[in-house]
Design a protein that fits this description.
The complex is a heterodimer of chains A (241) and B (775). Chain A has 241 residues and is of the alpha/beta class. Chain A has seven helices and ten strands. A six-stranded mixed sheet of chain A has the order 6-7-8-3-9-10, sandwiched between helices. Chain A has a four-stranded antiparallel sheet with strand order 2-1-4-5, with helices on one face. In chain A, helix 3 packs across helix 4, helix 3 packs parallel to helix 5 and helix 5 packs parallel to helix 6. Chain A is globular and about 45 Å long. Chain A starts with 16 loop residues before the first strand and ends with a strand. The mean pLDDT of chain A is 87. Chain B is of the alpha+beta class and 775 residues long. Chain B contains 25 helices and 20 strands. In chain B, helix 10 runs antiparallel to helix 13 and helix 16 packs across helix 22. The two termini of chain B are 30 Å apart. Classes of the chains: A alpha/beta (241), B alpha+beta (775). At the A-B interface, helix 1, helix 2 and helix 3 of A face helix 14, helix 15, helix 21, helix 22 and helix 25 of B. Chain B: Keywords: Cell membrane, Membrane, Transmembrane, Transmembrane helix. Chain B: It is a multi-pass membrane protein.
Chain lengths: 241, 775
């Protein structure tokens, strides 16, 4: 059994497109945060998006996650046109096909680590027992089994991010989105999260990482997309360090 | 100070929803408080207020014109603040009149107009007497319908000793200064036997003795024996209290409930606003704001919308209270309303903002003490304790996760939950009490209406207004009525004063036959049974209380020259209309009874047109005078209306409390909500989660509020009836049934859900991207 085998067992990178952005434009008032962005991400790929503050990185991530809608253009993820879906459709899509991790973890303070993770499956209608069973498997794989009954306030930053990753993986998503996943962590915890993302990608998990951290991009991603003023300034393949 | 104002303005702009909620809660609470206080004020002394409004006389005095001149009376002003008179006065012996009212001797006064310094009459119908042969009669105001249906409209004129006076108007004297008024010229023609003076005294007039003392001061310099009689206003006040007293505690309870719920909800909203701003408070401190400035920012932030709400609420409360007070006063028979007094306006304008300020001071003083870092962490610190254990237990249940998460929210902030719960509980208590009160009044009204028939008939006396008398005997009248289409039941009564051993005054006994028992009087039995033998009688509770009698007691009477001992076998609620002490006795023939001494009551079959039936009686025998009983008791309708308005107002305020709680929860949990939506919680699930928590509180509030409301109903209703010396039958108190109770629980849920829905929908539409990246 390979590491993280319970996460998912999919083939490595294929030619199947998981994400396609086609001429995506997003305006906030008079300002265009994204200006005609077109991008494709294939299954099993790990793509890092970088750029200076305000270049549109987070807006791009929001488009792909269905957290926001484009002003113009098409957003297709896992074969579904997100720009045409209503709020409920988007929620159901995220629930089944996307996993997200955030810079500040966004765990619920009043749920234990295990319940935070199980929650993602319970929203899909899984019973509490089934959801907890699945969450325990992930806790084992991510090396935080001993912290399952601890509340977020008592976890270290690295542990919180691992719990967040476990929650993101709970419903076996087609795409894992990471928004500055190491931004709030010390270097050691950051390294652990990077290792985890690499392991996930190696077993076939498609990744889209938005970051300021070049080291994270170069360690985890196979392709780098650089944004400037809402446009793709440069795309380059990366050799993982 | 400019920095404080700038920061407060910014906080108001940033928290638009919360500012709006505070303003709205202040508006509704102020409106509730203004209505409640106006009500409490009005009911605290309705007679006194009405008397003051009319500048009613503290004493109505009658002097002997043979012993004192008008000039002497006008000059005697020792201790008098204001006086009216001298007016000529005469006893006008109306022989039979029409119906049970306006019979016997009436006090007529010659008066040039309804105004003046004392006893400013409410001329509520028609006009003032302006020529000889005209009279204005004294009666509490009635609306058009009641007047048209009631007995007053059947009195076009009064006749006595060959003089006929045409009724040209109806006026009301709260102090009961006369039964009617004519022009001074007409009074001269009637040859007055007395001279009336109306006095308002300076100084203490709170007791009969005090009024008597003032009166003695006025009359000291007058010739001996000049004063024939004097009536202090307390006599009329006591009579009025018996009529209206039954409703005062009902209204008072609503006033008190209104005040309590307003205080609790204002406390909930304001403390929530300050606590949710702790993080902001920490930031202000970090910027260099002194603790005092921070407190000032927060007090300003909540006081501005509260003051705006209070101003609008006072105006709204005044507008809402005016027609209610007017109706209440009229319904109580006091004629004019006194409006919303100035102190109630002041309480609305100052009280609620002051309350808001005081409530905000408690959490603000905590913010004052906290360091910047502590304040920031207090605004975002994770919760500990029972809430976590409950949340874990709920997570393991089979409930949908959005439901179990919503239920868990209740335990995350127990103080906020408790305050919300309290407002819901009071909301349900109010609705329960209002429902019970309405039901009791409806049942009481039904009992009241059931007794007495739909149409009353009395033969015209020879000196009656039409001058036409009936040639039919008592039995023939009954036979005529029984033969008319639409007659279902007939009761016949004959009232006679009867001397009783041990009683200083004769007792007015109603000798009844026909269907009287079946016409609702038997249903009104509070104790014992209906009479079944010639030596048995049934008495009203009022008579029993007044005469110190009980069911089972015997009374020895002189009946047609024979000393007869009768037993009181039952206590009933209501007497027959008209004069009488409320003693029912089996029928007896009295040879000296005049035709117009008989009184008939008819129950009509359902669907019979009363007007057409009465017309049929008049056509069949113009000597019979029929009138229809008024509809439902006006005062009961008013109390039911009042209780409904206040219940709706309080339920709205309770729903606003819930709205505020959910709005605060959404504000607190914006990040959590964003995260939940990011992992696939649908908008419907977000709404379910937020509404579930409040609906659960609504159920709990319903389950607890109902017993409170029921207990309040059980305590207040008999108490209020007792104030009017009325014993209520148990049947009017047993108003609850399981379906109704279930609906009341539902009312709690409804208040909670309505309050929660708006912020829950706005939470469902929350932009996740903005929330999650806004750290």
């Amino acid at each position: 059994m390979t590491p993280l085998s319970v996460v998912r067992s999919v083939p490595g990178m294929t030619t199947e497109t998981v994400v396609r952005l086609d001429g995506v434009r997003k305006e906030f008032g008079e300002t265009a945060a994204l200006d005609g962005v077109s991008l494709e991400i294939r299954r099993g790929e790990a793509v890092a998006v970088m750029g200076p503050s305000g270049c549109g990185k987070s807006t791009l991530l929001n488009m792909v996650a269905g957290l926001d809608r484009p002003t113009a253009g098409e957003v297709t993820v896992h074969g579904e046109r997100l720009d045409l879906m209503n709020e409920t459709g988007l929620a159901l899509f995220r629930r089944h096909h996307l996993g997200m991790i955030f810079q500040f973890f966004n765990l619920l303070d009043d749920l234990s680590a295990l319940d935070n993770v199980a929650l993602a499956a319970q929203l899909t209608g899984s019973s509490a027992a089934t959801a907890r069973r699945r969450a325990l498997e992930l806790f084992d794989e991510l090396g935080i089994a001993g912290r399952r009954d601890v509340y977020p306030a008592a976890l270290s930053g690295g542990e919180r991010q691992r719990v967040a990753v476990a929650r993101a993986l709970m419903n076996r998503p087609a795409l894992l989105l990471a928004d500055e996943p190491t931004g709030a962590l010390d270097s050691r915890a950051g390294e652990q999260v990077m290792d985890l993302l690499i392991d996930l990608n190696q077993i076939g998990q498609t990744l889209l990482i938005v970051t300021h951290d070049e080291r994270l991009a170069h360690r985890c991603a196979s392709r780098l997309v650089e944004l400037a003023d809402g446009r793709i300034a440069r795309e380059s393949a990366l050799d993982r360090v | 100070m400019s920095a404080v104002w700038a920061a407060a303005k910014a906080a108001i702009r940033r928290r638009r929803l919360q500012t709006f909620v505070i303003g709205l809660v202040a508006l509704f609470c102020t409106a509730t408080v203004v209505v409640s206080l106006a009500l409490l004020d009005a009911m605290s002394a309705p007679f006194d207020r009405a008397l003051a409004q009319q500048r009613g006389a503290h004493a109505v005095a009658a002097f002997d014109p043979a012993k004192v001149t008008d000039a002497q009376l006008t000059a005697a002003r020792d201790g008098v603040e204001a006086a009216a008179g001298p007016f000529g006065q005469v006893m006008f012996e109306v022989g039979g009149g029409s119906g049970p009212v306006m019979r016997g001797p009436l006090t007529l006064v010659g008066r040039p107009g309804p105004g003046g310094d004392v006893d400013r009459l409410d001329l509520w119908r028609g006009r003032w007497a302006s020529a000889p042969g005209e009279v204005v009669l004294n009666a509490p105001p009635e609306d058009e319908t009641s007047f048209a249906r009631g007995p007053f409209s059947r009195i076009p004129s009064l006749t006595a000793d060959g003089t006929t006076l045409t009724v040209v108007g109806w006026a009301f004297s709260v102090g009961g200064s006369a039964d009617g008024w004519v022009t001074p010229e007409q009074m001269t023609e009637l040859r007055p036997t007395g001279t009336q003076m109306l006095y308002r005294f300076a100084g203490d007039v709170s007791t009969r003795e005090a009024v008597q003392q003032r009166l003695t001061g006025v009359t000291t310099g007058l010739p001996g024996g000049a004063l024939i009689a004097a009536q202090p206003y307390q006599v009329v006040k006591e009579e009025a209290a018996e009529g209206s007293g039954v409703y005062l505690p009902f209204l008072g309870t609503f006033g008190v409930l209104g005040l309590i719920i307003a205080v609790i909800i204002v406390g909930n909203v304001v403390s929530g606003a300050v606590i949710s701003g702790f993080r902001h408070i920490g930031m202000l401190k970090a910027l260099g704001f002194t603790p005092r400035q921070v407190v000032a920012v927060y007090l300003t932030m909540v006081t501005v919308p509260a003051t705006a709400g209070a101003i609008l609420g006072t105006v709204l409360g005044d507008l809402g209270a005016r027609p209610l007070l007017e109706d209440t006063f009229r319904g109580m028979g006091f004629g004019q309303d006194t409006g919303v007094p100035a102190w109630v306006w002041a309480a609305g304008l100052v009280g609620i903002p002051a309350l808001v300020l005081l409530t905000a001071l408690v959490p603000a003083s905590r913010a004052h003490r906290l360091s910047a870092a502590e304040a920031i962490s207090a605004g975002s610190a994770p919760r500990r304790g029972h809430g976590l254990r409950v949340q874990r237990a709920l997570g393991g249940t089979r409930l949908p996760r959005s439901v179990s998460l919503g239920l868990g929210h209740l335990f995350a902030r127990p103080a906020r939950t408790a305050l919300t719960m309290a407002s819901l509980l009071l909301g349900v208590t109010t609705v329960t009490f209002a429902t019970g009160l309405s039901d009791t009044l409806i049942r009481f009204s039904a009992l009241d209406a059931a007794a007495g028939g739909d149409v009353s008939i009395r033969p015209e006396p020879p000196d009656g207004p039409t001058g036409v008398t009936s040639s039919r005997t008592d039995d023939e009248v009954e036979a005529l009525l029984r033969g008319l289409p639409g007659t279902e039941r007939i009761g016949v009564a004959l009232g006679r004063p009867v001397s009783a051993l041990g009683q200083s005054e004769p007792i007015q006994v109603n000798f009844v036959r026909g269907d009287v028992a079946a016409m609702g009087y038997e249903d009104q039995l509070l104790e014992g049974r209906w009479m079944a033998a010639p030596d048995e009688m049934v008495a009203t509770s009022e008579l029993l209380n007044k005469r110190g009698l009980e069911v089972g007691d015997t009374i020895t009477m002189e009946l047609q020259g024979v000393r007869t001992t009768v037993t009181v076998v039952g206590e009933t609620l209501q007497n027959l209309p008209g004069p009488g002490d409320g003693l029912f006795a089996p029928w007896r023939e009295f040879e000296d009874a005049e035709p117009f001494d008989y009184f008939y009551q008819v129950d009509l079959t359902e669907g019979t047109d009363r007007e057409a039936y009465m017309q049929a009686i008049r056509s069949a025998d113009p000597g019979l005078s029929p009138w229809s009983r008024g509809g439902s008791n006006e005062l009961q309708v008013i109390v039911t209306g009042f209780s409904s308005v206040l219940a709706v107002l309080l339920a709205t305020v309770a729903a606003l409390g819930v709205l505020n709680t959910v709005a605060l929860n959404v504000l607190d949990r914006r990040r959590d909500l964003g995260m939940l939506k990011s992992i696939g919680m649908t908008p419907r699930q977000v709404i379910t989660m937020l509404v579930t928590s409040m609906a659960a509180l609504g159920v709990a509030g319903g389950l607890l509020g109902i017993p409170f409301g029921m207990v309040a109903h059980r305590l207040v209703v008999p108490l209020s009836a007792g104030a009017a010396k009325v014993t209520l039958p148990e049947s009017v108190l047993r108003v609850w049934d399981p379906l109704q109770l279930a609906l009341l629980v539902l009312s709690g849920v409804l208040i909670a859900v309505v309050g929660a829905l708006l912020p829950a929908r706005s939470a469902a539409r929350l932009t996740i991207a903005r929330v999650l990246h806004n750290e």
